[in-house]
Design a protein that fits this description.
The structure is a single chain. The protein is mostly helical. Helix 1 packs antiparallel against helix 2, helix 1 crosses helix 3 and helix 2 runs antiparallel to helix 3. It starts with a helix and ends in a 5-residue tail after the last helix.
Length: 103
């Protein structure tokens, strides 16, 4: 293998690791936001504010860590997608449970 191949492989592995970590972070945010929705009866504006706050905190952390602008934007998109996916998945489970689908 060439050095360039190893560098590309290392970069791909690091990218995959970071992507997975950002997805886990987004899912954790999504769970926390849905918990607040259920326990406090948050409305759509409050949910959006919670998402914006989570993304703002993540963006601040990434920037303070010296992450470049492109990677910050990509990272925020990954976290946002994971928050929304987790929230939707939990909403579906909650709906199924309240409709008698889950016991």
């Amino acid at each position: 293998m060439t050095s360039a191949h190893n560098d590309n492989q290392d970069h791909d592995e690091a990218t995959a690791f970071c992507f997975a970590a950002l997805q886990r972070l987004g899912r954790a945010y999504g769970k926390a936001i849905m918990h607040a929705v259920i326990s406090a009866g948050l409305g759509p504006d409050q949910i959006d504010a919670g998402i914006d706050a989570a993304l703002g905190d993540t963006e601040d952390w990434l920037r303070s860590s010296g992450i470049c602008e492109f990677d910050v934007e990509q990272s925020i998109a990954v976290v946002r997608a994971a928050i929304i996916a987790e929230g939707k998945a939990l909403a579906v489970l909650l709906d199924a449970k309240t409709e008698g689908g889950l016991h």
